[in-house]
Design a protein that fits this description.
This protein has helices at about 5-20, 55-65, 80-85, 90-95, 100-105, 110-120, 150-155, 205-215, 240-245, 265-285, 290-315, 345-350, 375-385, 400-405, 465-470; strands spanning about 30-40, 65-70, 70, 120-125, 145, 190-195, 225-230, 235-240, 325-330, 335, 340, 355, 365, 370, 415, 425, 430-435, 440-445, 490-495, 495-500. By secondary structure, the protein is α/β, with parallel strands linked by helices. It has an eight-stranded mixed beta sheet, sandwiched between helices. Strands 15-16-17-18 form a four-stranded antiparallel beta sheet, with helices on one face.
Protein backbone atom coordinates (compact mmCIF):
# COMPACT_ATOMS: atom_id res chain seq x y z
CA UNK A 1 0.00 0.00 0.00
CA UNK A 2 1.38 3.46 -0.86
CA UNK A 3 2.55 5.57 2.06
CA UNK A 4 -0.34 7.88 3.09
CA UNK A 5 1.86 10.98 2.95
CA UNK A 6 2.82 10.19 -0.64
CA UNK A 7 -0.81 9.62 -1.59
CA UNK A 8 -1.76 12.98 -0.11
CA UNK A 9 1.11 14.63 -1.99
CA UNK A 10 -0.02 12.99 -5.22
CA UNK A 11 -3.57 14.26 -4.73
CA UNK A 12 -2.28 17.75 -4.04
CA UNK A 13 -0.09 17.70 -7.15
CA UNK A 14 -3.03 16.56 -9.26
CA UNK A 15 -5.29 19.26 -7.85
CA UNK A 16 -2.63 21.90 -8.35
CA UNK A 17 -2.31 20.94 -12.01
CA UNK A 18 -6.07 21.11 -12.54
CA UNK A 19 -7.08 24.08 -10.43
CA UNK A 20 -3.97 26.14 -9.81
CA UNK A 21 -2.14 26.54 -6.51
CA UNK A 22 -4.68 28.89 -4.96
CA UNK A 23 -7.48 26.32 -5.06
CA UNK A 24 -5.58 23.02 -4.80
CA UNK A 25 -7.09 20.47 -2.43
CA UNK A 26 -6.92 16.78 -1.73
CA UNK A 27 -10.42 16.12 -3.09
CA UNK A 28 -9.41 16.07 -6.76
CA UNK A 29 -10.87 13.10 -8.70
CA UNK A 30 -8.55 10.19 -9.49
CA UNK A 31 -6.71 10.71 -12.77
CA UNK A 32 -7.65 8.73 -15.85
CA UNK A 33 -4.93 6.73 -17.61
CA UNK A 34 -4.09 6.33 -21.29
CA UNK A 35 -1.69 3.38 -21.57
CA UNK A 36 -0.21 3.42 -25.09
CA UNK A 37 2.08 0.56 -26.18
CA UNK A 38 4.18 0.07 -29.29
CA UNK A 39 6.09 -3.06 -30.28
CA UNK A 40 9.78 -3.57 -31.15
CA UNK A 41 10.44 0.19 -31.11
CA UNK A 42 13.99 1.07 -30.16
CA UNK A 43 15.24 4.58 -29.37
CA UNK A 44 14.93 5.87 -32.94
CA UNK A 45 12.53 8.68 -31.99
CA UNK A 46 12.89 12.45 -31.75
CA UNK A 47 12.52 12.77 -27.96
CA UNK A 48 15.45 10.36 -27.51
CA UNK A 49 17.74 12.38 -29.76
CA UNK A 50 17.29 10.51 -33.03
CA UNK A 51 16.80 13.28 -35.56
CA UNK A 52 16.24 11.05 -38.61
CA UNK A 53 12.81 9.77 -37.55
CA UNK A 54 9.65 11.78 -38.13
CA UNK A 55 7.81 11.62 -34.79
CA UNK A 56 5.88 14.89 -34.31
CA UNK A 57 3.38 13.41 -31.85
CA UNK A 58 6.02 11.86 -29.63
CA UNK A 59 7.80 15.21 -29.76
CA UNK A 60 4.55 16.84 -28.72
CA UNK A 61 4.09 14.37 -25.86
CA UNK A 62 7.66 15.01 -24.71
CA UNK A 63 6.92 18.74 -24.40
CA UNK A 64 3.96 17.89 -22.17
CA UNK A 65 5.76 15.51 -19.85
CA UNK A 66 8.84 13.51 -18.86
CA UNK A 67 10.96 11.36 -21.18
CA UNK A 68 13.15 8.69 -19.61
CA UNK A 69 16.24 8.48 -21.82
CA UNK A 70 17.51 5.47 -19.90
CA UNK A 71 14.29 3.48 -19.64
CA UNK A 72 14.69 -0.25 -20.13
CA UNK A 73 12.45 -3.19 -20.85
CA UNK A 74 11.71 -5.84 -18.22
CA UNK A 75 11.82 -8.75 -20.71
CA UNK A 76 13.91 -9.46 -23.79
CA UNK A 77 10.94 -10.14 -26.05
CA UNK A 78 7.19 -9.62 -26.11
CA UNK A 79 5.70 -12.23 -23.79
CA UNK A 80 8.05 -11.94 -20.77
CA UNK A 81 8.15 -8.15 -21.06
CA UNK A 82 4.37 -7.78 -20.94
CA UNK A 83 4.06 -10.36 -18.18
CA UNK A 84 6.53 -8.35 -16.09
CA UNK A 85 4.67 -5.10 -16.75
CA UNK A 86 1.23 -6.41 -15.81
CA UNK A 87 2.38 -8.41 -12.79
CA UNK A 88 5.00 -5.94 -11.58
CA UNK A 89 7.32 -8.91 -11.16
CA UNK A 90 10.42 -10.01 -13.04
CA UNK A 91 10.75 -13.42 -14.63
CA UNK A 92 13.15 -14.28 -11.82
CA UNK A 93 10.13 -13.98 -9.50
CA UNK A 94 7.35 -15.42 -11.68
CA UNK A 95 9.18 -18.06 -13.73
CA UNK A 96 7.73 -16.50 -16.90
CA UNK A 97 10.94 -16.25 -18.93
CA UNK A 98 9.51 -17.02 -22.36
CA UNK A 99 6.01 -18.07 -23.51
CA UNK A 100 4.42 -18.81 -20.16
CA UNK A 101 0.82 -17.69 -19.53
CA UNK A 102 1.04 -15.93 -16.19
CA UNK A 103 -2.65 -16.21 -15.12
CA UNK A 104 -2.30 -19.99 -15.38
CA UNK A 105 1.14 -20.18 -13.84
CA UNK A 106 0.69 -17.44 -11.22
CA UNK A 107 -3.08 -17.22 -10.61
CA UNK A 108 -2.72 -15.49 -7.23
CA UNK A 109 -0.79 -12.50 -8.57
CA UNK A 110 -3.09 -9.47 -8.89
CA UNK A 111 -2.35 -7.87 -12.27
CA UNK A 112 -2.41 -4.18 -13.10
CA UNK A 113 -5.83 -4.01 -14.76
CA UNK A 114 -7.46 -5.78 -11.81
CA UNK A 115 -5.98 -3.23 -9.39
CA UNK A 116 -7.55 -0.47 -11.48
CA UNK A 117 -10.88 -2.31 -11.61
CA UNK A 118 -10.91 -2.88 -7.86
CA UNK A 119 -10.27 0.85 -7.35
CA UNK A 120 -13.43 1.76 -9.26
CA UNK A 121 -11.91 2.39 -12.67
CA UNK A 122 -13.58 1.43 -15.94
CA UNK A 123 -10.96 -0.63 -17.77
CA UNK A 124 -10.75 -0.83 -21.55
CA UNK A 125 -8.20 -2.78 -23.59
CA UNK A 126 -7.50 -3.13 -27.30
CA UNK A 127 -4.69 -4.37 -29.48
CA UNK A 128 -1.34 -5.83 -28.57
CA UNK A 129 -1.25 -5.31 -24.82
CA UNK A 130 -0.31 -8.95 -24.26
CA UNK A 131 1.30 -11.48 -26.58
CA UNK A 132 -0.59 -11.54 -29.88
CA UNK A 133 -1.18 -15.29 -30.24
CA UNK A 134 -4.35 -17.10 -29.14
CA UNK A 135 -4.61 -17.79 -25.42
CA UNK A 136 -2.43 -14.97 -24.10
CA UNK A 137 -4.77 -12.13 -23.18
CA UNK A 138 -5.57 -11.96 -19.47
CA UNK A 139 -9.36 -11.36 -19.56
CA UNK A 140 -9.69 -10.65 -15.83
CA UNK A 141 -10.58 -7.16 -14.68
CA UNK A 142 -11.47 -5.64 -18.04
CA UNK A 143 -14.74 -3.77 -18.42
CA UNK A 144 -14.31 -4.42 -22.13
CA UNK A 145 -11.42 -5.91 -24.08
CA UNK A 146 -12.08 -5.11 -27.72
CA UNK A 147 -11.63 -7.76 -30.41
CA UNK A 148 -12.43 -7.06 -34.04
CA UNK A 149 -14.41 -10.24 -34.80
CA UNK A 150 -16.64 -12.71 -33.02
CA UNK A 151 -14.44 -15.53 -34.31
CA UNK A 152 -11.45 -14.14 -32.41
CA UNK A 153 -13.38 -14.22 -29.15
CA UNK A 154 -14.31 -17.86 -29.68
CA UNK A 155 -10.84 -19.10 -30.64
CA UNK A 156 -8.75 -17.97 -27.66
CA UNK A 157 -8.73 -14.22 -28.36
CA UNK A 158 -5.90 -14.06 -30.97
CA UNK A 159 -5.28 -10.64 -32.48
CA UNK A 160 -4.97 -11.91 -36.11
CA UNK A 161 -3.07 -8.80 -37.13
CA UNK A 162 -2.01 -9.78 -40.67
CA UNK A 163 -4.09 -12.72 -41.95
CA UNK A 164 -2.56 -14.17 -45.12
CA UNK A 165 -5.78 -13.75 -47.10
CA UNK A 166 -6.08 -10.03 -46.33
CA UNK A 167 -6.69 -7.88 -49.40
CA UNK A 168 -4.65 -5.04 -47.87
CA UNK A 169 -1.34 -6.93 -47.92
CA UNK A 170 1.29 -5.40 -50.22
CA UNK A 171 1.51 -7.15 -53.57
CA UNK A 172 3.28 -9.26 -54.58
CA UNK A 173 3.35 -11.22 -51.34
CA UNK A 174 5.83 -11.74 -49.79
CA UNK A 175 6.98 -8.27 -50.69
CA UNK A 176 10.52 -7.63 -49.48
CA UNK A 177 13.52 -8.76 -51.55
CA UNK A 178 14.70 -10.70 -48.48
CA UNK A 179 11.71 -13.06 -48.84
CA UNK A 180 11.19 -12.90 -52.59
CA UNK A 181 10.14 -16.26 -53.95
CA UNK A 182 9.71 -17.80 -50.51
CA UNK A 183 6.58 -19.45 -49.17
CA UNK A 184 5.97 -17.86 -45.76
CA UNK A 185 4.22 -20.23 -43.38
CA UNK A 186 5.09 -18.64 -40.03
CA UNK A 187 5.84 -15.08 -39.06
CA UNK A 188 6.60 -12.23 -41.43
CA UNK A 189 10.21 -11.67 -40.41
CA UNK A 190 12.20 -9.20 -42.55
CA UNK A 191 9.08 -8.20 -44.46
CA UNK A 192 8.32 -4.60 -45.38
CA UNK A 193 6.16 -2.90 -47.98
CA UNK A 194 3.61 -0.25 -48.81
CA UNK A 195 -0.09 -0.59 -48.03
CA UNK A 196 -2.39 1.43 -50.24
CA UNK A 197 -3.28 4.68 -48.49
CA UNK A 198 -7.00 4.08 -48.87
CA UNK A 199 -6.65 0.87 -46.83
CA UNK A 200 -5.20 2.55 -43.74
CA UNK A 201 -8.52 2.50 -41.86
CA UNK A 202 -8.76 -1.29 -42.28
CA UNK A 203 -5.39 -2.02 -40.68
CA UNK A 204 -5.65 -3.65 -37.27
CA UNK A 205 -3.53 -1.00 -35.56
CA UNK A 206 -5.74 1.75 -36.99
CA UNK A 207 -8.93 -0.01 -35.90
CA UNK A 208 -7.64 -0.40 -32.35
CA UNK A 209 -6.46 3.21 -32.29
CA UNK A 210 -9.82 4.56 -33.44
CA UNK A 211 -11.59 2.47 -30.81
CA UNK A 212 -9.35 3.82 -28.05
CA UNK A 213 -9.71 7.38 -29.35
CA UNK A 214 -13.48 7.16 -28.94
CA UNK A 215 -13.06 5.93 -25.37
CA UNK A 216 -10.80 8.78 -24.25
CA UNK A 217 -12.91 11.41 -26.04
CA UNK A 218 -16.19 10.69 -24.23
CA UNK A 219 -17.38 11.68 -20.78
CA UNK A 220 -17.29 8.86 -18.23
CA UNK A 221 -19.07 8.44 -14.91
CA UNK A 222 -15.96 6.91 -13.35
CA UNK A 223 -12.21 7.20 -13.92
CA UNK A 224 -10.92 5.13 -16.82
CA UNK A 225 -7.87 3.06 -17.70
CA UNK A 226 -7.64 2.80 -21.48
CA UNK A 227 -4.87 0.49 -22.73
CA UNK A 228 -4.18 0.27 -26.45
CA UNK A 229 -1.29 -1.60 -28.04
CA UNK A 230 0.04 -1.33 -31.58
CA UNK A 231 1.85 -4.08 -33.46
CA UNK A 232 3.93 -1.47 -35.29
CA UNK A 233 6.85 -1.19 -35.81
CA UNK A 234 7.14 -4.98 -35.38
CA UNK A 235 7.76 -6.92 -38.60
CA UNK A 236 6.09 -6.94 -41.04
CA UNK A 237 6.71 -3.24 -41.69
CA UNK A 238 3.53 -2.92 -43.74
CA UNK A 239 2.23 0.64 -43.50
CA UNK A 240 0.53 3.05 -45.90
CA UNK A 241 2.52 4.42 -48.81
CA UNK A 242 2.37 7.98 -47.45
CA UNK A 243 4.60 7.08 -44.50
CA UNK A 244 7.24 5.60 -46.82
CA UNK A 245 7.02 8.75 -48.93
CA UNK A 246 8.05 10.89 -45.94
CA UNK A 247 11.59 9.46 -46.15
CA UNK A 248 14.28 9.57 -48.82
CA UNK A 249 15.47 5.99 -49.00
CA UNK A 250 18.91 6.93 -50.32
CA UNK A 251 19.48 9.48 -47.53
CA UNK A 252 18.80 6.99 -44.72
CA UNK A 253 21.79 6.63 -42.39
CA UNK A 254 22.70 3.14 -41.23
CA UNK A 255 23.34 2.54 -37.52
CA UNK A 256 26.99 2.52 -36.41
CA UNK A 257 28.76 -0.84 -36.52
CA UNK A 258 32.35 -2.05 -36.43
CA UNK A 259 34.02 -5.03 -38.00
CA UNK A 260 34.75 -7.94 -35.65
CA UNK A 261 32.29 -6.62 -33.05
CA UNK A 262 31.53 -10.18 -31.97
CA UNK A 263 35.13 -11.28 -31.45
CA UNK A 264 35.35 -10.42 -27.75
CA UNK A 265 32.10 -12.12 -26.75
CA UNK A 266 31.98 -15.39 -24.78
CA UNK A 267 32.53 -18.30 -27.16
CA UNK A 268 28.98 -19.69 -27.04
CA UNK A 269 27.40 -16.26 -27.62
CA UNK A 270 29.90 -15.49 -30.39
CA UNK A 271 29.02 -18.70 -32.23
CA UNK A 272 25.31 -18.06 -31.81
CA UNK A 273 25.42 -14.47 -33.03
CA UNK A 274 27.87 -15.21 -35.83
CA UNK A 275 25.32 -17.63 -37.23
CA UNK A 276 22.63 -14.98 -37.14
CA UNK A 277 24.88 -12.55 -39.01
CA UNK A 278 23.72 -14.35 -42.14
CA UNK A 279 20.69 -12.05 -41.96
CA UNK A 280 22.88 -8.95 -42.18
CA UNK A 281 25.05 -10.43 -44.91
CA UNK A 282 21.98 -11.34 -46.95
CA UNK A 283 20.71 -7.76 -46.74
CA UNK A 284 24.09 -6.47 -47.92
CA UNK A 285 24.09 -8.90 -50.84
CA UNK A 286 20.63 -7.69 -51.83
CA UNK A 287 21.59 -4.01 -51.37
CA UNK A 288 18.54 -3.92 -49.09
CA UNK A 289 19.89 -2.54 -45.81
CA UNK A 290 18.47 0.91 -46.46
CA UNK A 291 15.21 -0.60 -47.69
CA UNK A 292 14.84 -2.53 -44.42
CA UNK A 293 15.47 0.63 -42.39
CA UNK A 294 13.07 2.53 -44.64
CA UNK A 295 10.28 0.15 -43.68
CA UNK A 296 11.11 0.46 -39.99
CA UNK A 297 11.20 4.27 -40.04
CA UNK A 298 7.92 4.40 -41.98
CA UNK A 299 6.38 2.11 -39.36
CA UNK A 300 7.63 4.32 -36.51
CA UNK A 301 6.03 7.33 -38.17
CA UNK A 302 2.78 5.43 -38.70
CA UNK A 303 2.76 4.46 -35.00
CA UNK A 304 3.43 8.11 -34.17
CA UNK A 305 0.42 9.12 -36.28
CA UNK A 306 -1.75 6.65 -34.36
CA UNK A 307 -0.55 8.19 -31.09
CA UNK A 308 -1.52 11.56 -32.55
CA UNK A 309 -5.07 10.37 -33.20
CA UNK A 310 -5.53 9.35 -29.58
CA UNK A 311 -3.91 12.52 -28.25
CA UNK A 312 -6.15 14.64 -30.49
CA UNK A 313 -9.24 12.80 -29.25
CA UNK A 314 -8.19 13.21 -25.64
CA UNK A 315 -7.31 16.89 -25.94
CA UNK A 316 -10.57 17.76 -27.70
CA UNK A 317 -12.77 16.09 -25.07
CA UNK A 318 -13.67 16.45 -21.41
CA UNK A 319 -10.74 14.39 -20.07
CA UNK A 320 -7.83 16.46 -21.35
CA UNK A 321 -6.73 17.91 -18.02
CA UNK A 322 -7.11 14.84 -15.82
CA UNK A 323 -5.53 12.02 -17.79
CA UNK A 324 -2.09 10.48 -17.28
CA UNK A 325 -0.51 9.33 -20.54
CA UNK A 326 2.27 6.77 -20.67
CA UNK A 327 3.94 5.66 -23.90
CA UNK A 328 6.13 2.56 -23.85
CA UNK A 329 7.64 -0.10 -26.08
CA UNK A 330 7.85 -3.69 -24.91
CA UNK A 331 11.55 -3.88 -25.94
CA UNK A 332 13.90 -2.48 -28.52
CA UNK A 333 15.35 -4.07 -31.64
CA UNK A 334 18.82 -4.62 -33.06
CA UNK A 335 19.10 -3.53 -36.66
CA UNK A 336 22.61 -4.65 -37.48
CA UNK A 337 24.22 -3.50 -34.22
CA UNK A 338 25.79 -6.84 -33.24
CA UNK A 339 22.92 -8.51 -35.09
CA UNK A 340 19.25 -8.31 -36.08
CA UNK A 341 16.40 -8.96 -33.68
CA UNK A 342 15.71 -8.99 -29.95
CA UNK A 343 16.00 -11.74 -27.28
CA UNK A 344 19.33 -10.22 -26.23
CA UNK A 345 20.78 -8.56 -23.14
CA UNK A 346 22.42 -5.65 -24.93
CA UNK A 347 21.40 -2.00 -25.16
CA UNK A 348 19.47 -2.11 -28.41
CA UNK A 349 17.09 -4.71 -26.98
CA UNK A 350 16.73 -3.06 -23.58
CA UNK A 351 16.55 0.71 -24.16
CA UNK A 352 13.01 1.74 -25.11
CA UNK A 353 10.78 4.81 -25.45
CA UNK A 354 9.23 5.51 -22.04
CA UNK A 355 7.31 8.78 -21.69
CA UNK A 356 4.82 10.13 -19.15
CA UNK A 357 2.56 13.20 -19.15
CA UNK A 358 -0.47 14.45 -17.25
CA UNK A 359 -1.57 15.96 -13.94
CA UNK A 360 1.18 16.25 -11.36
CA UNK A 361 3.89 15.44 -13.94
CA UNK A 362 6.53 17.98 -14.89
CA UNK A 363 6.51 19.23 -18.47
CA UNK A 364 9.28 19.20 -21.06
CA UNK A 365 11.74 17.28 -18.90
CA UNK A 366 14.29 14.63 -19.82
CA UNK A 367 15.66 12.18 -17.24
CA UNK A 368 18.86 10.16 -17.71
CA UNK A 369 18.59 8.11 -14.49
CA UNK A 370 18.09 4.39 -15.17
CA UNK A 371 14.53 3.09 -14.80
CA UNK A 372 12.57 0.03 -15.91
CA UNK A 373 9.15 -0.76 -17.33
CA UNK A 374 8.73 -2.93 -14.21
CA UNK A 375 8.25 0.40 -12.40
CA UNK A 376 4.92 1.17 -14.09
CA UNK A 377 2.65 -0.78 -11.75
CA UNK A 378 3.93 0.76 -8.48
CA UNK A 379 3.91 4.19 -10.17
CA UNK A 380 0.23 3.83 -11.06
CA UNK A 381 -0.51 2.64 -7.54
CA UNK A 382 0.92 5.88 -6.19
CA UNK A 383 -0.33 8.32 -8.83
CA UNK A 384 -3.85 6.90 -8.97
CA UNK A 385 -4.33 6.01 -5.29
CA UNK A 386 -4.77 2.28 -5.96
CA UNK A 387 -4.74 -0.26 -3.14
CA UNK A 388 -2.19 -3.00 -3.74
CA UNK A 389 -2.25 -5.77 -1.14
CA UNK A 390 0.75 -7.32 -2.90
CA UNK A 391 2.88 -4.16 -2.91
CA UNK A 392 5.69 -5.86 -1.01
CA UNK A 393 5.90 -8.55 -3.71
CA UNK A 394 6.39 -6.17 -6.64
CA UNK A 395 9.88 -5.83 -8.07
CA UNK A 396 9.71 -2.26 -9.35
CA UNK A 397 9.79 1.12 -7.63
CA UNK A 398 7.42 4.06 -7.98
CA UNK A 399 8.56 6.80 -10.34
CA UNK A 400 5.95 9.22 -8.97
CA UNK A 401 8.44 11.35 -7.01
CA UNK A 402 10.63 11.78 -10.11
CA UNK A 403 7.64 12.55 -12.35
CA UNK A 404 6.55 15.28 -9.95
CA UNK A 405 10.06 16.69 -9.54
CA UNK A 406 12.72 15.44 -11.94
CA UNK A 407 15.49 16.86 -9.76
CA UNK A 408 14.77 13.93 -7.43
CA UNK A 409 15.82 11.37 -10.07
CA UNK A 410 18.59 9.10 -8.86
CA UNK A 411 20.38 6.50 -10.91
CA UNK A 412 20.10 2.90 -9.77
CA UNK A 413 21.03 -0.60 -10.86
CA UNK A 414 18.25 -2.10 -12.99
CA UNK A 415 17.72 -5.79 -13.71
CA UNK A 416 16.79 -7.36 -17.03
CA UNK A 417 16.38 -11.16 -16.82
CA UNK A 418 17.26 -13.32 -19.80
CA UNK A 419 15.32 -16.28 -21.18
CA UNK A 420 16.56 -18.81 -18.64
CA UNK A 421 17.21 -18.66 -14.87
CA UNK A 422 20.57 -17.23 -13.75
CA UNK A 423 20.96 -15.24 -16.96
CA UNK A 424 20.60 -11.47 -16.75
CA UNK A 425 21.99 -7.99 -17.24
CA UNK A 426 22.45 -5.31 -14.59
CA UNK A 427 22.65 -1.78 -15.99
CA UNK A 428 22.98 1.80 -14.82
CA UNK A 429 24.14 5.06 -16.36
CA UNK A 430 27.77 3.95 -16.25
CA UNK A 431 27.87 0.19 -16.82
CA UNK A 432 26.19 -2.82 -18.35
CA UNK A 433 27.08 -6.17 -16.85
CA UNK A 434 25.82 -9.38 -18.49
CA UNK A 435 26.05 -12.81 -16.90
CA UNK A 436 25.10 -16.01 -18.67
CA UNK A 437 23.93 -19.23 -17.09
CA UNK A 438 27.25 -20.92 -17.80
CA UNK A 439 29.11 -18.19 -15.87
CA UNK A 440 30.39 -16.32 -18.93
CA UNK A 441 30.31 -12.52 -18.65
CA UNK A 442 30.32 -9.23 -20.51
CA UNK A 443 30.97 -5.74 -19.16
CA UNK A 444 30.63 -2.43 -20.99
CA UNK A 445 31.63 1.08 -19.96
CA UNK A 446 28.52 2.84 -21.25
CA UNK A 447 29.85 6.38 -21.04
CA UNK A 448 33.05 5.59 -22.95
CA UNK A 449 31.54 2.90 -25.18
CA UNK A 450 27.80 3.58 -25.76
CA UNK A 451 27.71 1.12 -28.68
CA UNK A 452 29.00 -1.72 -26.47
CA UNK A 453 31.83 -2.58 -28.83
CA UNK A 454 34.47 -3.43 -26.21
CA UNK A 455 33.82 -6.20 -23.68
CA UNK A 456 35.84 -5.45 -20.52
CA UNK A 457 34.81 -8.50 -18.49
CA UNK A 458 38.24 -10.17 -18.76
CA UNK A 459 40.14 -7.08 -17.59
CA UNK A 460 41.19 -7.74 -13.96
CA UNK A 461 40.97 -4.07 -13.02
CA UNK A 462 37.20 -4.20 -13.47
CA UNK A 463 36.52 -7.13 -11.12
CA UNK A 464 35.43 -4.70 -8.40
CA UNK A 465 32.84 -3.16 -10.73
CA UNK A 466 31.57 -6.61 -11.67
CA UNK A 467 31.30 -7.67 -8.02
CA UNK A 468 29.32 -4.55 -7.17
CA UNK A 469 26.91 -5.02 -10.08
CA UNK A 470 26.46 -8.72 -9.36
CA UNK A 471 25.42 -7.81 -5.83
CA UNK A 472 22.30 -6.19 -7.34
CA UNK A 473 21.19 -9.41 -9.05
CA UNK A 474 18.56 -11.72 -7.52
CA UNK A 475 19.95 -14.25 -5.08
CA UNK A 476 17.63 -16.89 -6.52
CA UNK A 477 15.70 -17.38 -9.75
CA UNK A 478 12.29 -19.02 -10.06
CA UNK A 479 12.12 -22.21 -12.07
CA UNK A 480 10.50 -21.73 -15.50
CA UNK A 481 6.77 -22.36 -15.73
CA UNK A 482 5.20 -24.59 -18.36
CA UNK A 483 5.56 -23.16 -21.84
CA UNK A 484 2.27 -22.48 -23.57
CA UNK A 485 1.67 -24.48 -26.76
CA UNK A 486 4.77 -26.61 -26.17
CA UNK A 487 3.95 -27.97 -22.71
CA UNK A 488 0.31 -26.84 -22.41
CA UNK A 489 -2.74 -27.21 -24.62
CA UNK A 490 -5.21 -24.40 -25.21
CA UNK A 491 -8.81 -25.32 -24.36
CA UNK A 492 -11.58 -23.07 -25.71
CA UNK A 493 -15.20 -23.14 -24.50
CA UNK A 494 -17.31 -20.49 -26.18
CA UNK A 495 -15.83 -17.09 -25.32
CA UNK A 496 -13.63 -18.56 -22.59
CA UNK A 497 -10.26 -20.26 -22.82
CA UNK A 498 -7.72 -21.87 -20.53
CA UNK A 499 -4.41 -23.70 -20.72
CA UNK A 500 -3.93 -27.24 -19.45
CA UNK A 501 -0.67 -29.19 -19.09
CA UNK A 502 -0.13 -31.74 -21.82
Amino acid sequence: MPHPLRRTLCALLTAAYLLGPATANADAPPPNVLFFAVDDMNDWIGPMGYTKAITPNMDRLAKRGVTFQNGHTAGVFCAPSRTAIFTGQHASTTGCYTIQYYPQHNPDVIPMQVLFSQAGYATYGAGKIYHHREGFIDPRGWTNFFLRTREQRQTGWPLNIWPRDSHILPQPFPHSPFNEGKKITGGLFMEWGEVRNENEEEMADTVWTNWAAKKVAKKHDQPFFVAVGLYSPHFPNYVPQKYFDMYDRDAIELPPTIENDLDDLPERIRRQQTGRMRIHQRLIELDALKDAHHGYLASITYADAMLGRVLDALESGPNAENTIIVLWSDHGYHRGEKNWGKHKLWERTSNVPFMWAGPGIEQGKSVTATVSLIDMLPTFVELCGLEDPQADDRDGVSLAPTLGDTTQAQDRDVLLPGMVPDEYTIMNEDWRYIRYRDGEEELYDIRADPNEWYNLADDPKHRGVISKLRASAPTSFAEPGLVARREMNLITEGDQFRWEPK
